[in-house]
Design brief:
The protein has 154 residues and is of the alpha+beta class. The chain has a single domain, classed as 60s Ribosomal Protein L30, Chain: A. The protein contains three helices and six strands, in the order βββαβααββ. The strands form two sheets. Strands 3-6-4-5 form a four-stranded mixed β-sheet. Helix 1 packs parallel to helix 3. The protein is globular and about 40 Å long.
Length: 154
């Protein structure tokens, strides 16, 4: 499996993202949107940078449960209720990214929204990753999601 981050010289130099990510082989993992929820279901953190850190950590926890690692993220969308505040804290958010993920960036987008599902949430992250096919694991899985046509349950 290979992941190539592509940044054509004819486009503006990226800062905190890659223009494109090309992948050969592997297993595609869809990562649900994550906010700054703690284990009890409460939003933690009062600033966008604090909430981004928790949301990203939650996303990486879900990725790890599939056998994946941060360097295998190929796309990430950030939803922020105050995009100007998100941009104003870009240095802090970038420092969180480098600490949790590293210096490589997936294809990314940031979208301003009027509200997130959890009213106290300031930011949500959603992503895609490509992990090696051999990374399949049952860690973190609850119940069976595969069904056989015609099979009866219970």
């Amino acid at each position: 499996m290979s992941i190539e981050r592509v940044n054509p010289p004819s486009l503006a130099a990226p800062s905190g993202f890659s223009h494109a990510v090309a992948v050969t082989a592997g297993r595609l993992v869809f990562l649900a949107g994550q906010t700054a929820l703690d284990g009890s279901g409460s939003i933690v953190g009062s600033t966008v940078a604090e909430q981004f850190e928790r949301a990203l950590a939650n996303l990486l926890t879900a990725l790890a449960a599939t056998g994946g690692s941060p360097d295998q993220l190929v796309s990430l969308t950030v939803y922020a209720v105050d995009l100007a505040d998100y941009r104003a804290h870009g240095r802090d958010i970038g420092a969180v990214w480098r600490r949790l993920v590293g210096r490589d960036y997936p294809a990314m987008a940031a979208v301003g929204v009027s509200r997130l599902w959890d009213a106290a949430a300031l930011v949500e992250v959603q992503g895609f990753a490509v992990v090696p096919s051999a990374a399949a694991t049952s860690s973190g899985r609850r119940g069976s999601t595969a069904t056989t046509p015609g099979a009866r349950s219970g």
